[in-house]
Amino acid sequence: KMFFDATPESQKIFVADPANGSRHNRGSAIDLTLYDLATGEPVDMVGGFDEFSPRSFPDYPGGTSRQRWLRELLRRAMEAEGFTVYEAEWWHFDHEDWREYAIQNATFGELGR
Questions:
Q1: Residue 27 contacts residue 101 (beta carbons within 8 Å)
Q2: Which of 25, 18, 20 lies closest to 2 in space, CA to CA?
Q3: How far is Cα 70 from Cα 74, in angstroms, rounded to an integer?
Q4: Cα–Cα distance measured from residue 52 to residue 28, given in angstroms and rounded to the nearest whole number
Q5: How far apart are CA 55 and CA 46, in angstroms?
Q6: How many CB atoms neighbour CB 89 within 10 A?
Q7: For the chain, what percent of residues have pLDDT higher than 70?
Q8: How many CA atoms lie within 13 A of 34 on its CB side?
Q9: pLDDT digits (tens, 9 = 90+) for 26-67
Q10: For 2, which of 10, 19, 69, 84 is 20 to 30 Å away at the CA?
Q11: Which residue of the set 9, 89, 96, 100 is catalytic?
Q12: Cα–Cα distance for residue pair 74/103, rounded to 1 Å
């Protein structure tokens, strides 16, 4: 809640309101990027992971052609598995049925193995 409250109104598209819950705490969203297997480093995308700017938008037209290609490669791979990209974050993907899951607040210990 503190993080949400401290976020400027113009940036709230990047932060879920804890009063409403998030897609993440329904267990149906994931944040991810691509890694270069040779270096073990994340590839260079148009905008940085968790960057609060228009460069985070999945359809942002800037960046290099390679950065846009990699972003689209990630998007196509996730869509092929039933996920959709969130409108404001190229790295955030929601399962197609995310609305069907209840909001959770369990620790990993509570979930078991």
A1: yes
A2: 18
A3: 6
A4: 22
A5: 6
A6: 19
A7: 93
A8: 21
A9: 778 899 999 999 999 999 999 998 898 999 999 999 999 999
A10: 84
A11: 89
A12: 27
Give which of 93, 98, 4, 15 is closest to 51, Cα–Cα. 15
Q: Are 57 and 87 contacting, i.e. CB atoms less than 8 angstroms apart?
A: yes
Q: How far apart are CA 35 and CA 32, in angstroms?
A: 10
Q: Is 79 a catalytic residue?
A: no
* pTM summary value: 0.78
Tell me the H-state helices in the chain: 2-6, 65-79, 108-111
Domain parsing of the chain, residue ranges = 20-104
Q: What CATH topology corresponds to 20-104? A: Muramoyl-pentapeptide Carboxypeptidase; domain 2 (3.30.1380)
- The residues that bridge with 32 in the sheet, in sequence order, are none
